[in-house]
Amino acid sequence: MKHGVRNSVKEFRKEKGLTQDQLAESISVTRQTIIAIEKQRYEPSIGTAIKLATVLECQLEKLFWIEGEE
């Protein structure tokens, strides 16, 4: 992937001790959505990104960034 939004959802999820299913349920998406986000295959909506940051208790900028700007 040359450019695009990158994320550290998997790392923050593991720090919180959450499974993909638990995280998915907490933000009302499917486990498949969480898998796709973690594998950098899907860029979530801003609403979903904010929900993830809230549940994972981290700043949005720490969770998502544009590649090359970190």
Write the layout of secondary structure elements.
Blueprint: E1 5-7, H1 9-15, H2 20-26, H3 31-38, H4 46-55, H5 60-63, E2 64-66
Antiparallel strand pairs: 1-2
Overview of this protein structure:
The chain has 70 residues and is mainly α. The protein has helices at 9-15, 20-26, 31-38, 46-55, 60-63; strands spanning 5-7, 64-66. Strands 1-2 form a two-stranded antiparallel ribbon. The longest helix is centred in the last third of the chain and has 10 residues, at 46-55. The radius of gyration is 11 Å and the shape is globular. The two termini are 15 Å apart. The mean pLDDT is 93. InterPro entries: Cro/C1-type_HTH (IPR001387), Lambda_DNA-bd_dom_sf (IPR010982).
Provide a brief overview of the structure.
With 70 residues, the chain is mainly alpha-helical.
Low-confidence stretches: none
- SSE order, one letter for each helix or strand: EHHHHHE
Mean pLDDT across the residues is 93
**Class from secondary-structure proportions:** mainly alpha
Number of helices: 5
What's the helical proportion of residues? 40-55%
Largest sheet: 2 strands, antiparallel
**Strand order within the widest beta sheet:** 1-2
Oligomer: single chain
**Radius of gyration over all CA atoms, rounded:** 11 Å
